[in-house]
Structures are given as structure tokens and as C-alpha cells.
Write a structure and sequence with these properties.
The chain has 117 residues and is mostly helical. The chain has a domain at 52-117: Chorismate mutase (Chorismate Mutase Domain, subunit A, Up-down Bundle). 67% of the residues lie in helices and 9% in strands. The chain contains 4 helices and 2 strands. The protein has a two-stranded antiparallel sheet with strand order 1-2. The N and C termini lie far apart (49 Å). The structure holds prephenic acid (PRE).
Length: 117
């Protein structure tokens, strides 16, 4: 049986879907393989991925709250809402470490902290 899957590009691709056809149909559908050793390893790796994702979400929320506090503190003291030189430093750090994706990530982080302009 064939099924549609959405690739990371967002476009539709076709792939074999063997879920439910073998003795381990459900496990195959969950992990994408019917090799039990590979499936076991995938499940273990996914546990760590889920842990990392939870940490990223927590840190994301903490950063946004801190950034909002800095902005509120500065504005309450008569300062500016933004400090563009600081934003440039942050963008450059993320670009240096992560390349073009880092720049995009830093833009999202900054947006989360300061809200819409
Ligand atoms: O560091 C500051 O001064 C902040 O206000 C925090 C922050 C940020 O999210 O990192 C947000 C807005 C500023 O323009 C610069 C940086």
C-alpha cells in the first residue's frame, strides 16, 4: 500500500507504507522500520529527543520572560524599548555558531521576547 507523507520541505512525497502488513505492523508504523534492533535504538534515541525538546521549550519560555522583563525595566526608567546593538551581537553569535539557520533562530528568539513591533 502507498501513502502520502509530508516531507520537511512541506511538499508531498510517496513512500512505501508497510504498517500492519507484517508481524510487527504497529511497531513498524511507529518507528519506520521492521528491524527490531533498529526499532529499539530508534525508540531509545527518541526518548532523548523528547527530553531535549522539553528543555528547549522551557528555555525558550524562560528567555522570552527575561527579555520582556529587561524591556519593561528599561522603559520604566525612561529608556528605549529595543537596543539594536545588543540584537546585532546576538544575531552574530547565532550566525557564527549555526550558520544561516542560526540567524533565523535568533530572529525568532528576539521576536518572542519583545513581541510584535
Ligand atoms: O538585552 C536587552 O537589552 C534586551 O532588551 C533583551 C533583548 C533580547 O531578547 O535578547 C530584547 C530586545 C533588545 O532589543 C535586545 C535584546
Amino acid at each position: 500500500m502507498m501513502t502520502d507523507v509530508v516531507e520537511s520541505s512541506g511538499s508531498l512525497a510517496r513512500r512505501d507504507d508497510r504498517s500492519g502488513t507484517g508481524p510487527n505492523g504497529a511497531a513498524t508504523a511507529r518507528t519506520g522500520t521492521d528491524d527490531s534492533a533498529a526499532a529499539e535504538r530508534i525508540v531509545a534515541i527518541r526518548e532523548r529527543i523528547d527530553e531535549i525538546d522539553r528543555t528547549i521549550i522551557e528555555l525558550w519560555q524562560e528567555r522570552a520572560a527575561l527579555s520582556q522583563e529587561v524591556g519593561a525595566t528599561r522603559m520604566a526608567s525612561g529608556g528605549t524599548r529595543l537596543v539594536l546593538s545588543r540584537e546585532r551581537e546576538i544575531l552574530e553569535r547565532f550566525r557564527r555558531e549555526l550558520g544561516a539557520d542560526g540567524t533565523q533562530l535568533a530572529l525568532l528568539l528576539l521576536r518572542a521576547g519583545r513581541g510584535p513591533l
